Amino acid sequence: MAMVKQDARARLRAEMRAQRATNNGIFSFQKKILDSLSKIISQHMIIASYVPICGEADPAQAVALARALGKAIALPRTDPATKTIHFHHHAVAGALESGAYGISQPLPSAQRTTPDLLLVPLLAFDRRGNRLGQGGGYYDRALAALPDAVSVGIGWDWQEITDVPVEPWDRRLDFIATPTQWLTA
């Protein structure tokens, strides 16, 4: 049974990556979604975001909104040896370097911080807040280590599927924001 679920997850990842690779649209939230994001962001102090890669939904509008509300922004630094991410403060023009998997990340000298709201990338999601990530478990471990933090998955509308195959270590998202939908899990 476990192997069947792993095979289903691997097939779904491949399918969603292929679809995302051909997607060249501009990611933009409708006003009603930005209003929902604003309400959530205003309740938190340190917002963790990410630098999109390979067609991921771009959280730039949410980050701009957070900065306009005077919130601190953090970005993840990946440690492939421990398969963890830690969040570091990121100023508007803060320097970034290429990290694991070619992902832009803050320099090691950037102040480490603990976010209370995480904007989370995804490959697929369902209406129950389940997400399928890249497969390394980095965000699942980060969410487990920050149990009081609120999580908002950022994705394209077409990334919604009926049921994400989940494993016991998977962490549900609290909210999901797409260009046209605001879902509460």
| Helix fraction by DSSP (H/I, runs of at least 4) | 25-40%
Average pLDDT works out at: 92
Number of strands: 12
User: Which topology does CATH recognise?
Assistant: Rossmann fold
The number of domains is 1
Q: Could you please describe the fold and organization of this structure?
A:
With 185 residues, this protein is an alpha/beta fold. It has a single domain (2-184), classed as NagB/RpiA/CoA transferase-like (Rossmann fold, 3-Layer(aba) Sandwich). Helix content is 27%, strand content 24%. The chain contains four helices and twelve strands, in the order H-H-E-H-E-E-E-E-E-E-E-E-H-E-E-E. It has helices at 2-22, 31-42, 60-68, 138-145, and strands at 46-48, 72-79, 84-89, 96-98, 104-106, 112-113, 117-120, 124-125, 131-132, 150-154, 175-177, 182-184. It has an eight-stranded mixed beta sheet with strand order 6-3-2-1-7-10-11-12, sandwiched between helices. Strands 4-5 form a two-stranded antiparallel ribbon. Strand 1 (46-48), helix 3 (60-68) and strand 2 form a beta-alpha-beta unit. Helix 2 (31-42) packs across helix 3 (60-68). The radius of gyration is 16 Å and the shape is globular. It starts with a helix and ends with a strand. The model has no long low-confidence stretch (mean pLDDT 92).
